[in-house]
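User: Can you predict the 3D structure for this chain?
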Amino acid sequence: MVVGMSTVATPKQPPSPTLSPTVATDSRPERRGLDWRINFAVLSVVWGFSFLFIKLGTEGFAPPYVSFGRMFFGAAVLVAALVIKRQRLPRSPRTWGHLAVAAFLCNAFPFTLFAYAELTIPTTLAGVCNATTPLWGMVLSLVALSEDRPTRRRFAGLGLGFIGVLVVLGAWQGFSGQDPKGTAMALIASVSYAVGWIYVRRTLSGTGDGHLALSGGQLLVGALQLGVAAPLLSPLPSALPTVPLLAVFALGALGTGLAFLLQYGLVAEVGPTTATMTTYLIPVVATAAGVTLLGEELTWNTPVGALIVLAGAALTQSRGRSSRTGRTVAAGDATQGDGAAQS
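Assistant: Here is the predicted structure, written as structure tokens:
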């Protein structure tokens, strides 16, 4: 989530320095298309396992500490990357102020809500709630991001993707017996993601800082926020059980640190609406993990739903040449997002 844009981007503005050369030009469309699809797939796999890691983490730690560990290990990955690449964190106090808000909306608050939610609801339902993020984002973008107004085709793609999620989860069987409070917390977390994306898009684009520096700064601020809040919300852990600790480490290093690096580039390249389509594949990956690792039964609706999800993702990306060019220019001034840092 990154740098301030209060007006619509125009072709006269230079591309943001936080973006890769392939984002700022149309000279190599084939490579750009391949890049976003690779990032899309990797993020879906990483985030698909995140709900499992959250569930395992809460078996040994209170939710605020699961979120704190996630932010701490995620920040450690990005700081290490900064050192290796010899880059530095942002220096502007204004940028740090925006990063603090972005860290709360996109990380500290929703991460903690999902951890609390999974105390009472299954990871499957948490994934469904998470998959509503693009829908909230579309509604909010109609008001806040005039340059990213969804077209009819993108509306159809998002709707198709959501239908695919429902098919994967067998929604026609109902969600009886689910905890309303836990479900509400998961939905509020998804809304927070969408609000955070909009905030980041409008305030953290064009600072001159690289996306690695911005993402590292955001996670550092989020870890500090949770480091202060966690002891106030729950007693300190009395032990460090191995499996929950490893789960929190994987959640932070992979599901947050690595995912941040990939997600920032994806949002910059194809825009926040398409980037959030990764949330539609999260339940698919989570189900596959359950079948292979936990021996859960695989039914017909899982592969069928996965195909519908992929079709929806492709539909949101299928635009004419003129719209591709215009969107690429806009992407040059867009900011990176966390989605999802979503899951």
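DSSP finds 14 helices and one strand in the chain. The first helix runs from residue 21 to 24.
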